[in-house]
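Re-run with default settings, no changes from the original entry. Doing this only to confirm the output is reproducible before filing.
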Amino acid sequence: MTEQKQNQLTILIGTGASGGHMFPALSVAKNLRARGVRCVFVVGGGKFTQLVEDAGFEMVRLPASALNVRNPIRKLKGLFNLLRAFWRALRLVQTYTPAAVFGTGGYATVALVLAGKISGVPTIIHEQNVLPGRANKFLARWADKILLTFSAASGYLKAPAGNLYTTGYPLRESIENGLKHSSKRSQKPLRLLVLGGSQGSRILSQILPEAVARLPENLRKNLFIQHQARAEDTDLVAESYAKLNLSGTNMAPFIEDMSAALSAAHVVVSRAGTGAVAEISVFGRAAIYVPLSLADGHQALNARLPEKAGAAVVLDEPLFTPEALAGHLLNLLEHADVRTSMENAAKNFLPLDGTKQVADAVLDMAKSDIMNQ
């Protein structure tokens, strides 16, 4: 280890395998790195780990296996790997002597935060959803500071009130930059943005063309649709749209420039992962959320908050019919005053500086520990 790294303030960052865990962690790490902080990622695997390496961060892998399984052998394997991960994390804390440990959820976060706690290192976690994940629910009892995207999440955590802070969501760097340089929207054509989440959404791909077909022809002629869907569905959805006499379409399994897409959109139809809700809200876009039906219902809870604030409409999957969607689309696309009201509510729904607030909180804990040594 070089002398510069030895003298540099170090933060260990634990994160899970999903994009919902990884993207916020990366945003915070980039903010901290810009302030001269050394950030080392501790991960349990997953396809998004390549993003860590691409961003130029050091990374250490821990053993990880799913615990939320019914098979007793697989569950036992998961517990064994969690124990192995904890001992490995304990050695990492001793090796790197971090000023703080920060986690965004997932199995690696559990091992790392517990290792940090036992070693006397300040521990901070960030919970993205209204309904906390299993890892953060467990860690909230032990972490020194719990940061929340939504204050409503505090009702689901067993933690001292003095340890809970609402910071908003750590936005992606590209989204923050896009907010600073967002251009004025054109009113012709109107633009509808459809976001199916990281895996795409077949139900959105099935219902959207049928709903748009129910809109008046003069409205369809002035409507451009940008639709993110599964790769295997894009051709079929494009063919369905081609029959509707639209102003234009853009189909893709992944939207490279989400800032540009949100900046141009008048209405967004989307799943309700926290990242999507946060990004749509900070751009101030009228939204129709279709929460993914999950056992814990966390996307539905995410979506209900902007709906309550007047920033969105929520259509749960059983109610997500072509007729219902067409009615809401007609109302939003034809009435600029309705859109404006929802846009203003969306802009006030979440802070724009969530990344900085989270990074500030981590850095404050790290510096206070150094001062107390």
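The chain has a mean pLDDT of 91. Residues 86 and 273 are 29 Å apart (CA to CA).
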